[in-house]
């Protein structure tokens, strides 16, 4: 009798307290030192993404500002954090506890992540439609990320200036939130409570479905 097929680790997801996992697509696990994982991506996929997204992206300021996590939490139980956006995204400080009262979205990408472009475009569309009723942070946890490469990614996605862009080079926030793959989306309600999480590219229709009840309507 043939041996049993290996079962993939279950991806943690939350949607209103329930766990589910979208079908299809391999996850891009974060490979950096604080996560012991093997086989992040097929070599061909990495090369293809890098070829698409790294052209001319090394400049434009590579130093990422400090990311601070804790010691407190929001009323919803999420660790409080402060991060500074990259210079071309304003260079301002975003502190979660000072931005409650509206939903906050954390979307984890990398400047070379071609599969992250469609959801980035979806978030760009959503921000155009709902404006400042939602905070959307696009965060790269790649320790080798540069502002120039991230800007190249933004330009390829063709999104406007409504998104906030940051680099979590030290992985502090990424670790604190238990993020283990790119394309991870975390949605917090107005009290900072996590109400949705996934680890795969998510279409506009699903993102709107998650956000609409938090906003009390659309737009």
Which overall shape is indicated by the principal axes computed on the Cα atoms? globular
Instruction: Provide the low-confidence segments as ranges.
Output: 1-26, 32-52, 54-65
CATH class identity: Alpha Beta
So what's the oligomer here? single chain
Adjacency order of strands in the biggest sheet:
1-9-8-5-6-7
| Number of separate strands | 9
Number of H/I helices = 5
The number of distinct structural domains comes to 1
Please name the CATH topology. Glutaredoxin
Order of helices and strands: EHEEEEHEHEHEEH
Instruction: Give the N-terminus to C-terminus distance in angstroms.
Output: 57 Å
What is the CA-based Rg, rounded? Answer: 17 Å
Task: Give a written overview of the molecule.
By secondary structure, this protein is an alpha+beta fold. It has a single domain (27-214), classed as Glutaredoxin (3-Layer(aba) Sandwich). It is 24% helix and 19% strand. The protein is built from five helices and nine strands, in the order E-H-E-E-E-E-H-E-H-E-H-E-E-H. The chain has helices at residues 43-53, 117-130, 147-157, 172-176, 204-215; strands at 14-15, 67-73, 79-84, 93-95, 104-108, 135-140, 164-167, 185-188, 194-198. The strands form two sheets. It has a six-stranded mixed sheet with strand order 1-9-8-5-6-7, covered by helices on one side. Helix 2 (117-130) crosses helix 3 (147-157). The longest helix has 14 residues, at 117-130. Mean pLDDT is 80; it is low at 1-26, 32-52 and 54-65.
Key features?
single chain, 219 residues, alpha+beta, Glutaredoxin, 6-stranded mixed sheet, 3-stranded antiparallel sheet, 19% strand
């Amino acid at each position: 009798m043939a041996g049993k097929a290996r079962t993939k680790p279950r991806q943690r997801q939350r949607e209103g307290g329930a766990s589910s996992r979208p079908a299809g697509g391999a996850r891009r696990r974060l490979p950096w030192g604080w996560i012991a994982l093997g086989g992040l991506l097929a070599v061909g996929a990495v090369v293809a993404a890098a070829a698409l997204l790294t052209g001319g992206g090394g400049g434009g300021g590579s130093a990422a500002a400090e990311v601070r996590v804790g010691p407190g939490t929001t009323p919803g139980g999420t660790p409080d954090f402060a991060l500074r956006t990259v210079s071309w995204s304003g260079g301002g400080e975003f502190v979660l506890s000072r931005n409650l009262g509206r939903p906050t979205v954390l979307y984890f990408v990398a400047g070379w992540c071609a599969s992250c472009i469609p959801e980035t475009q979806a978030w760009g569309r959503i921000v155009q439609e709902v404006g400042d009723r939602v905070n959307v942070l696009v965060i790269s946890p790649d320790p080798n990320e540069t502002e120039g490469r991230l800007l190249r990614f933004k330009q390829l996605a063709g999104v406007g200036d409504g998104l906030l862009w940051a680099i979590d080079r030290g992985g502090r926030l990424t670790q604190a939130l238990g993020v283990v793959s790119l394309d991870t989306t975390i949605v917090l309600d107005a009290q900072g409570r996590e109400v949705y999480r996934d680890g795969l590219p998510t279409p506009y229709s699903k993102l709107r479905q998650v956000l609409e009840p938090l906003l009390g309507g659309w737009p």
